[in-house]
Structures
1.
Amino acid sequence: MKFSDSFFNRVEKKTNVNKQTILNLAKKLQENDMKNEGTLREVIDELSRMTGRKVTKEKQDKIIEAVINDKVPKDIDKMI
């Protein structure tokens, strides 16, 4: 999946996370198992720190369940 610069600009504006950081996180996910709970928790924690938004254990559990069960929307561009 290829994202446009406008996508990254919208994400950065909304979260203060730059394109390179997003790409580094994506690479980390590609190099690891996206269905691995430990990897997902690490990425969620890292995103939480970067954006300054607290993610509760319950919210983490819901995110992980959605990813593992393929319930994540395929059109991420529309979410931003």
2.
Amino acid sequence: MDILQAIGNTSMVRLRKVVPPNCADIFVKLEGENPSGSVKDRMARALISRAEADGRLKPGDTVVEYTGGSTGASLALVCAAKGYGLRIVSSDAFSREKLDQMAALGAELTLVPSQGGLTTRKLILDMIETARGLSREPHTYWTDQLNNRDSLAGYYPLGEEIWRQTNGAIDAFVHCVGTAASSRGVATVLKRYNPAIRVVVVEPAESSVLLGGRAGPHKIEGVGIGYAPPLWEPALVDDILAVSTEDAKAMARRIAREEALFAGTSSGANVVAAIRVAERLGPGAKVVTLMVDSGLKYLSTDVHGRGS
């Protein structure tokens, strides 16, 4: 068994303390158990293996990507395991731990300055253009995560795991939208089994573009790019909920202290939204969401740092 075979088959646990009374049960998949500490390992393995299979990525090539950090760490893991070089475009908007993890796994970093450490539409577009420039160099493969449909296949097994671990007794799946690949991949599988399962996606309240609002700066890392991502498929989505950065941070701290689940800001947003869905559905129903990554990626931030 190699390290890439350790991706997936993560645990699922029920939230016990942060869920109010008279709610549906809420279960969370512990995606921080993946080798790099996030759900993105699933898509990184699919991006690289599929590009190898059809010849887009050849031995000796260098992989290029723009990322807030978790995708970069996952690509760095896969590229290190398979022997490819990796050039990552990221930013000071994202946690120091994520940048350090990418570098530790062998990625060469190019950092694009942000507006006061915030995620904005302009930052994402600047990162994409920087990556586009790097991708023009010879012997380079640009994974281009926002447009690459290969990532969807990386999340189909996650949908299968959720169906299997709930024995098919699932009423709703709740998850934040970044590229939209993970929510779409899971929704595709779950709705194939049971079209009545509700898929609820989450976005930052400060940049609630999927609900028709204006793009704005926020601090929920890895989600809310400021425009509808190319992989967004509204036909698979039953509802969209907006969660503020402060509510997401506060819930990330609560689930650490009350549930002993150590995860990041988008996981906090997932739980805030899952509780709203669980309150609507009531006792006897079952809601599933994701603990997207490990809280170890946020120790230098005001989410889990000593000042939080």
3.
Amino acid sequence: MNRYAQQRLGFIALGAVTLVVVIPILLVIGNIIAQGLGAISWEFLFGMPRAGMRAGGILPAIVGTILLTLGVALFAIPFGVGGAIYLSEYARDTTFTRAIRLAIINLAGIPSIVYGLFGLGLFVLFFGLGVSILAGSLTLAIMTLPVIISASEEALRAVPTEFRTVNASLGGTRWQGIRKIILPQALPGIITGVILGLLRAAGETAPILFTVAAFYLPRLPQSVFDQTMALPYHLYVISTQVPGMPLQIQYGTALVLMTLTLSLNLTATLLRRHFRKRRQW
């Protein structure tokens, strides 16, 4: 077999593997859209739940999910990107820094239920924040930090060394080079890591179960110390804990959650494309 036939065979095999992965995903998305589209209405999206969540809307759950995602971004992005900058640009390659990187990788694989119990013990009980948006945001932020740090560090390390050399030869400080040269060039990869972390936070159920989520709360939160409903937990409750719940409402809630996460992903893709065009390497 010549190399062109081998290449063609490789392309066919890769295409088949891609179809095996993509087709089930498309079928799941199509089923959710077909089953849940009928539930989507103005009242469903902007109304308060009634009759034990069997009627009305899911506005508190939508608002709660958005508030938690914003809270995670507020806490996780500065610390995550800052930690990545330190590990990539300042920290020396020592046993201590290698241990930190290993710990970050291991933390990324810890089950989310463990983070929920950690948040319950630290933020809810020890710091006395109670079951609140603030406690839930801090718990989710800690859970997403390993993803953001790892992806951001890889993006920073991918920037060619020549940029740093030129900055030093022109008399620029290390921080000037990071702020004006390295960070703008690494932004596409950093954005990817941030969005992966936020998407995980937006779709988690276990951590918010212990720290913020309310079973039934037909009102909007008034402060960061209030409980709130959230779409992942709301979907879990109406699917498993509420007898007689119409199937259409369950799929409609899943469709809203999927739309929010896909919208976040699309926004990140557009931002990544924009900054990638401005990249100089």
4.
Amino acid sequence: MLELLDTIDSIVWGPAMIALLLGSHLFFTFKTGFIQRKLPRAIRLSLSSDPEGTGDISHFGALATALAATIGTGSIVGVATAILAGGPGAVLWMWVTGVLGIATKYAETYVAVKYRVRDHNGAMLGGAMFVWERAFGRNAASGRDSGSIGRAPWWARLGAVAFAAFAAIAAVGTGSAVQASAMTGIITANAPGIPVWAIGIVIVALVSAVIFGGVRSISKVCEKLVPVMAVAYAGGCLVVLALNWALVGEALGLILECAFTPKAAFGGAVGSGIMMALQFGCARGLFSNESGLGSAPIVASAASTRNPAQQALVAMTGTFWSTVVICALTGIVLVSTMLANPDIASDILANPTVYSGAMLASEAFAKIPYIGTPILVLGMVAFSYTTILGWSYYGNRCITYLFGRYAIRPYQVVYVAVAFLGAIGVGDVVWTISDIGNALMAIPNIVVVLLLSGVIARETRHYVWEGNLDEADDAPIPQLEGR
């Protein structure tokens, strides 16, 4: 089974997917007029609130929830696994994916907010499934595009269902099992006496206490936890870099060299090929920032905003923080630590397991006297916990689209049950299935955003580049009957 999954993973994350992702990132960078230039304005906007906006949660609440789902395993353990599998050069490709992916995150969020709907309680619903259904919907009486719910052609409904189904499956793997597995790995690596079943029970209890309260409950927890844990983790990284200061330049040089040339690193323990570095860098880059995946726009659609451009700008800062900052810091920390201690890679790769990435991160932070290990353990636990919360909302919204509101509670029960299974150990299959699920949900999301690129470019020019960012979008938000 593992061999079959590895084969599928290598196919979906082959040259075609890498070309689609990087090509889309480049395309939207130019199509939006290099929207990355608006990053300072976007950061300021993310810290503001607008009582005149329409939505359920604040700008920052939506951003914090999206960051909670992204700054986690992918930003720490994912970087470590990318280095172990693809060599130090994978760090550069993760960073490039992040810089260019800012534009894709803006574009996918823009259309998700533009085509969002209301559920039976009036709460906002959004995501690629509703973009497919509304953007190509047709009025049955007039035959003209109406942007209404339903009456979409079969191929649009197929795109909507495919995205929702793959996202719901990926939420169980990426958001639940993988994060619980990472929590168990980091805790048992530093406190081996704690039984994994006990960790699993605690995870289930803490997750259940929040996710059954809906998006407001999730966003409130994330607003409090995400800033604190991100600052603490970044501070720990800076301390490690200070300890490894003499090797930071060599680490950066090695990352650049291995990104473009095949080279063995760390005494030959880690081999690197250009395609391996590119493949694992892009795969883990998407896993860390989710640009092109279509996940973050689901929660961004619930934000209170005057127009789609406002929340799209806020959402794109998530890619900057998660990959351009956190992943880059993590990568330099790990590479410099492995240069200082070449035996680390040899020891870990001698007996590789699903916890190898967590072990590598633990070794790096253990170099900080007294506080290094506690910072990593607490940071990883907090990151993984909030990621479970964020992805639970993504799965919730996709299940609502597919089966209606009565399927939400059964899905939540399955979600926390899978978290327990992930905690007690489900092996490498978790990472592989998550990689496959991420790729498959990205395809219908990227396709629909590309189809609407003209709309995005035209309205971005009006709202962002012509100075109308405070203008209200008065388009009605339709009700989704029966869901």
